[in-house]
Amino acid sequence: METPENVPAGRGRGNSGLAWLADGWDFYAGMLPRLVPAILAVPLLSVPVYFLADRFGSVWPAYAWMTAVIIPIEAGVALFYIKAARGRESLRDIFYGFSIYFRALAFTLIFSMMLLGGFMLLIVPGILIMLAYSFGEYALVDENLPVRECFLRSAAITQGHRTDLLPVLGLMVLIEVFAPSMIDLGSVKAPSVTFKTGFWDVAGHALKNFVFIPWLNCAAAIAYCRLKDRADRPRLTAADDAGEEAEDQEPPAEE
Asked: Fewer Cβ close by (within 10 Å): the C or N end of the chain?
């Protein structure tokens, strides 16, 4: 079933990086009150990460929290944005990742290792992996697929539009890496939380978590929904044709 045109994932400005960014901003600005739960979920639930690292002087309790809570919540937030783009979001979508916890964890670990290996190989392979498989998590939560099928589905959905995804995914990476943060964990060996209260630290932290990342999540959700509809169209047409052929081959009813 194709997405109706009167929701953010509808046709909009088309399928290109700039079109997704522009439509993503309209999505973010126009539906901001409804997006608040998804916007706040990860930043608020990430607070214990810093507390645990500071309290125990080790990153391992923080990693345990991220594994147990943040990974499934991020999967649920992805589903929330997808369904919001279709006009059908629900608060319980944010917690959906817990119902597919082991697959969400497996996909995150495998994809992270693939990205790490790709970026270690002169960066370009990492970029290609990111563009091809970035919608794997979306396919996991949207279509409830096995982990291996998520990678294959993402590759099929993004086929022919991977360079178009570069502005959206590239901005996500740049903001994650270079945006200032109010909270500094220090070294991995001896983590210690310090708060930075400079204007640019506070402003950058707020803009990253409450404007830029949500906006880009909206753009990515729109891109996923539109590219999925495009990828599904030949399959639906083939299924319809097969049904018509079967009807044509049915023998006439006896009088």
From this structure: C
